[in-house]
Design brief:
The chain is an alpha+beta fold and 117 residues long. It is built from 2 helices and 5 strands. It is elongated and about 85 Å long. GO terms for molecular function: RNA binding.
Length: 117
Amino acid sequence: MSSTFTPMAETGLSLPPADRPVLRKNRRSAPAAPFRFSAYSHLDHEDTEHRQAELFYLQKQIQSQTPMVIILEDGEQIEGCIEWYDRHTLKVRGRQRVLIFKSAIKYMYKHGENGGI
């Protein structure tokens, strides 16, 4: 196999103008940014501090098995101990085990305290 160099002028292809930049992919380009949910990309320092306080409070209630009263946006009242949580939900063990979206919670308080707003 012999390879011969054929100038572009002989192949009938035109050369790009000298003032037009030649675009080439850089093989050592930076890696793509990690995927982020758009809903959480706007969090600032104050929101982060608020979130840390929320996580600390929930962890404390889980470890001490504190009976809680959770009032939902629709007025429903759920009593029980928080078993676990994640970014969007709480799992509460009471008469039944219930998974509650945090966005549905109006407020919550420890059972036995005055929690009325």
